[in-house]
Amino acid sequence: SYELTQPPSVSVSPGQTASITCSGDKLGEKYTSWYQQKPGQSPVLVVYQDTKRPSGIPERFSGSNSGNTATLTISGTQAMDEADYYCQAWDSDTVLFGGGTKLAVL
Amino acid sequence: QVQLVESGGALVKPGGSLRLTCAASGFTFNDYYMSWVRQAPGKGLEWVSYISTSGSLIQYADSVKGRFTISRDNAKNSLYLHMNSLRAEDTAVYYCARYRRLGYYFDYWGQGTLVPVSS
After folding, report:
1. How distant is the Cα of B70 from the closest Cα of chain A, in angstroms?
2. Of B100, B104, B109, the CB nearest to A89
3. How far, in Å, CA of B98 to CA of B77, rounded?
4. Distance (Å, whole) CA B41 – CA A51
5. Do residue B103 and residue A33 have CB atoms under 8 angstroms apart?
6. pLDDT by residue (tens digit) across B78-103?
7. Min distance B100 CA to chain A CA atoms (Å)
8. How many CA atoms, within 13 angstroms, populate the side-chain half-sphere of residue B74?
């Protein structure tokens, strides 16, 4: 069965760029979305269809997807960006989530 | 504005049944696919099921196939999840989410309802 793999954790200093990866076989051929989830809250869509940002999501959030890896990039990371991030894709009529990455802003 | 409000979560014994409801507002409900996604305590997100606009297309995760049934009532702007033969591993917060089928993403989520399965 298809799997999406994310690193369990990523650390970044305030103001720096954070990159969170999501790997899967030929993932670049599928649309990938990204969700931010803060403790005790519901997930929020931050990137969809690989590179698009929903209205209200800051421009510092961007996405890319090529080959076997999709990447969520947060430029000028702020303390408020500390959260869990999940990638998500679709394969064979089912929806898949990555295991999630905890972003620490230190 | 889009609102999704789940209800029905409750403590249930292993082998028991439960029905969750998601009340939708702020958009034309029958124009959108809908879905359930769950999250076990301290764990990641797990997709459960989705249903097409008319209810004619339904898919389930292997972990719930044969035990859970998704349905919708477009006249009542409501989404349902009927859960049977519940197991301890079904313990989770269950989220209702609007599913954008053309782009394969969830653009709005409810606040979730907790379903603990324990004797």
Report:
1. 15
2. B104
3. 12
4. 30
5. yes
6. 999 999 999 999 999 999 999 999 98
7. 10
8. 13
